[in-house]
Design goal:
By secondary structure, the protein is α/β, with parallel strands linked by helices. It has 10 helices and 9 strands. The protein folds into 2 domains: about 180 residues, HUPs (Rossmann fold), CATH 3.40.50; about 80 residues, Pantoate-beta-alanine ligase, C-terminal domain (Pantoate--beta-alanine Ligase, Chain: A,domain 2). It is globular and about 60 Å long. About 35% of the residues are buried. The model has no long low-confidence stretch (mean pLDDT about 95). The structure holds pantoate. The site of pantoate has 10 residues, from strand 2 and helix 7.
Length: about 280
């Protein structure tokens, strides 16, 4: 596995690799952008990328512009050695590990998330967060120029905004959405789970339980959004819930669940940890 930290060096390296290795058929590149502290969720993204591409690139970059003042940028878990091992075992060809100074200059241009979709849900509690996400993802995609880029469904709003950016900026990358990986008791994997105490981890299960209840109600032919949300709120009520919503997959408000085109999203604080989860219906 090759490790590269300079963006331009990676761009050159990939250009050569595509040209020299790709005799007649252009080599496909699968890209998994991450902020490190890799877990099974990331491993499933890497696995998908490995399955369908000739070259697999993983980036580890804790992007400062997507953290708001007072958020956990400084204490965000860093596990470089373990991450490197995971990438090696996962068959990653190139690990991109840049520093902030190489990714950002002075007098920066930034991509702005649309007001409607970028400032609701997670964007309400973290205004400007998605501007940072879109800006860094645009930079990363321009450096790697992947055929396919892999994102987890757990960060559904991020995934939606990135797909929108790729569409509206006429970018040729294919965005691949990968299912959320869960612990056996239902807790969605997240790098932030390490912040949870034993008791908090138990409390956090209310999030996945509420989503399961929502999905179960649908199997009992309950499709009224308000009715489902009311029951879900009962389970979630001991937690500090930032939002629980049922939207269509374009993140628009709906009154009745549209099977195959809906998503239930929850964000709740457990202790001081903000947890996101969702289920695609
Ligand atoms: O989902 C993440 O880990 C980050 O938001 C991403 C996409 C790597 C951008 O920094």
């Amino acid at each position: 596995m090759k490790i590269i930290s300079n963006p331009l060096e990676l761009k050159e390296y990939l250009k050569d690799k595509r040209e020299t290795d790709g005799f007649q058929v252009k080599q496909s590149v699968g890209f998994v952008p991450t902020m490190g502290a890799l877990h099974e969720g990331h491993i499933s993204l890497i696995r998908e990328a490995r399955k369908n591409n000739d070259i697999v690139v993983v980036s580890i970059f804790v992007n400062p512009t997507q953290f708001l003042k007072g958020e956990d940028l400084d204490k965000y878990p860093k596990k470089y050695d373990a991450d490197k091992k995971i990438c090696e075992i996962g068959g990653v060809d190139i690990l991109f590990f840049p520093e902030a100074k190489d990714m950002y200059g002075n007098d920066e241009v930034s991509i702005l998330a649309p007001i409607v979709r970028g400032y609701v849900l997670e964007g309400t509690s973290r205004p400007g967060h998605f501007n940072g996400v879109l800006t860094v993802v645009m930079k990363l995609l321009n450096i790697v120029e992947p055929t396919r880029a892999y994102f987890g469904k757990k960060d559904a709003q991020q995934l939606n905004l990135i797909s929108l950016m790729v569409k509206h900026f006429f970018m040729s990358v294919e965005i691949v959405a990968v299912d959320t990986v869960r612990e056996s008791d239902g807790l969605a994997l997240s790098s932030r789970n390490v912040y949870l105490s034993k008791e908090e981890r138990q409390e956090a299960l209310k999030i996945s339980s509420s989503l399961q209840l929502g999905a179960k109600m649908l199997t009992q032919n309950v499709v009224e959004v308000e009715e489902i949300l009311k029951k879900m709120r009962e389970i979630l009520s001991p937690l500090e819930v930032s939002y629980v919503e049922i939207l269509n997959r374009d993140f628009e408000i709906i009154k009745k669940v549209e099977i195959g085109n809906s998503i239930i999203l929850v964000e709740a604080r457990v202790g001081t940890t903000r947890l996101l989860d969702n289920i695609w219906l």
